[in-house]
Amino acid sequence: MKYFFSAGEASGDVHASEVIRELLEFDPEADICFLGGDRMAYATGKAPLIHFSRMAFMGFIDVAAHLPQVLGNLRRAKEAIRAMRPDAVVLVDYPGFNLKLAKYAKGLGIKVFYYIAPKLWAWKSYRIRQLRRYVDTIFSILPFEPEWFGERGVDVIYVGNPSVEEVEKAISSLPPRSEFLSSHSLPDRPILALVPGSRVGEIKANLPVMDAVARRHPDMQTVVAGAPSLPASLYREFTDFPLVDGATLGLMASARAALVTSGTASLECALAGCPEVVCYRAVGWKWAHDIFLHILKIPYASLPNLIGGKIDRATRRRVNEEAVKTGVRGCIVPEMLVHNCTADNVDRQLSAIVPDGEARTKQLEGFERVREILRTESSAAANVAKLLYEKSMS
Which of 204, 271, 390, 394 has the smallest number of Cβ neighbours within 10 A? Predict the structure, then answer.
């Protein structure tokens, strides 16, 4: 059979490549065309139609600045789908671009599947109409999504979360902590990991707060997780603590605690068993925080809490200002968001989880609950490949 995959970011390239490897076990003669990267190229033995490095534009301003290239990518992808007439189009995350491909492919009568759904339960819920019209089935990696999407008329199947397998596999192959320290010229002291994100805006907003908190803990060795795609000079604008590039998971696994910008890293930190405080500071105004909570359609901002937390949205809105500052009741990890993301508030949470005690124990127990909720008998990639093959044939 013929398949067309579209992955517009590095993470999508990783996840799609695993699905392709498993798919070729079911369908060794599969003809695969794709938008993606080197991992997908290795899995297929082919070059991408468009490399994701020419597609990874985020936000309105970035997209507008590269609009001719974005439109050119979209036109070329549509031409390839029309010429190939695949049995299935498989879209991986990257909704702004991929939903346009879904509409086009569906108009040609082609089956459309979505792996790693747009996070409409958090924001941009108006896109649900596009999913209903143009996507046959969503292969979900978050266990609460089937109910949410199902209530809105979208067919969703939970397939497991690839981060569980990836983190467990990566951690099992990590060197001993002593070797990690030696390889990065770090002393044998408790580590405080600062994980400020992989985007320039996130780093500029969050790293200064993280740095200020870390300076209150001179007994710990503070280490900053650097994104491989960003220059060290960017981090040096906000901190002079040691920087480790491309080894975030190893850093988390070796750390006593971490300050993590909300995102996938918060889940990886939980799966690595490293107690954390989630930080997200865009601007520090209270009205921005209120708008932020209004836009969010969910009780939490971080994945560990969304997956394993025990609180509903109504309760989240009723908590008073002091409760927010000290960590929302019912969560696994404290979330210090927007104007609450100050050095004092973050340090209060960090100081509670560094020593052995109730707060640290509860987080570690919560992390185990998250692992159990996410774990499936087969890998997410294998489950997606099997479903994709069966549904494409039917």
Answer: 394
